Amino acid sequence: MTYDPRSAVLFAALDAAAHGWHVFPLRPGTKRPALHGEATCPRTDECAGGHRKWEQRATTDPGRIRAAWSQAPFNVGIATGPSQLVVIDLDTPEHKGGSDAPDGAATFEALCERAGHAVPDTYRTRTPSGGTHLYFTAPDAARLTSTAGTVADSVDTRAVGGYVVAAGSMLPTGTYEALNSIPAIVLPTWLHAVLQPAPTAPSKPLRLPAVDGSRAALAALEAECAVVAASPDGLRNVTLNRCAFKVGRFVAWGDLPRQVAEDAFQGAGEARGLTAAECRATIRSALDSSLRKARPREAA
Ligand SMILES: [Zn+2]
């Protein structure tokens, strides 16, 4: 019997469908849908009554899956909306093109910890770029739309309107792999709250509260918050991270209460348009890292 690459991805498609997840074909070796777009719709067959995009055509029907995958070794897309899934996509800094960018897994762990919980144990996959996908089922009451960067850098969600690449799919750089065989759990309420994009805070002038702290520490805090407030669009989070890190040594030396630094940076970051959740995660991680690395004052 000769190896047929179609059988590997067909198995992946049938396996996903057996979980109740709605699948559709992606172009072989890629993450792009294989189905035609609206602009090139022939208005025949499935589209006879009007164009139907991949989200509507995704199926759990083994017969339709076998027929589609007999044509080519398609990768497997899971349409998260009809599958009632929320998938959390944790990316790696290397993939986002900057070693300064926060690691999605670390940021997500910080968000969970902040909410008082451990990262939930659920079905997860690893992507060829080293990212992780955490699968959750989404009861109707907890439906979320897909997000990109609004929860935090490198932490995205795929839900209604989105899709993920299923385990077993292959890119030139590697294979999507299931990291366990446990079922996807129901999205916890607390996590649903964490994933809500924060409302955009109105821009307001930055004013530091009259608080304790040495004069040098407060001056540094004020200067670094001003840098955050003036950061360029693509570098807001990176700037917040760097500035909070710099001020962290004053916290380590006891010159500045941590809460004062956190509140000031939170205000500056939100005023610059970052979400509250992004600010919290970045500031926390920057200060933690700074406190770990701070040298004694005389050696600084
Ligand atoms: Zn069509």
What can you see in these coordinates?
With 300 residues, the protein is an alpha+beta fold. It is 37% helix and 15% strand. The protein folds into two domains: 5-194, no CATH class; 215-299, no CATH class. The strands form three sheets. Strands 3, 4, 5, 6, 7, 11 and 12 form a seven-stranded mixed beta sheet that branches. The protein has a three-stranded antiparallel beta sheet with strand order 1-2-8. Strand 9 (170-171) and strand 10 (174-175) form a beta hairpin. The chain is elongated and about 75 Å long. Mean pLDDT is 85; it is low at 201-205. The structure holds zinc ion. Zinc ion binds next to loops.
SSE map:
Layout: H1 5-18, E1 23-26, H2 54-57, H3 62-69, E2 75-79, E3 85-90, H4 93-96, H5 104-114, E4 124-126, E5 132-137, E6 147-152, E7 155-158, E8 163-165, E9 170-171, E10 174-175, E11 177-178, E12 185-186, H6 189-195, H7 215-229, H8 236-252, H9 258-271, H10 276-293
Parallel strand pairs: 5-12
Antiparallel strand pairs: 1-2, 2-8, 3-5, 3-7, 4-5, 4-11, 6-7, 9-10
Helix pairs in contact: 1-3, 5-10, 7-8, 7-9, 8-9, 8-10, 9-10
**Low-confidence runs:** 201-205
Total domain count: 2
Q: Which ligands appear in the coordinates? A: zinc ion
Structural class call reads: alpha+beta
Characterize the biggest β-sheet: 7 strands, mixed
Q: What is the rounded distance between the termini? A: 68 Å
Order of helices and strands: HEHHEEHHEEEEEEEEEHHHHH
Shape: elongated
How much helix is in the residues?
Answer: 25-40%
Number of strands: 12
SS summary, helix count? 10
Compute the CA-based radius of gyration: 23 Å
Residues in β-strands, percent: 15-25%
Overall pLDDT metric: 85
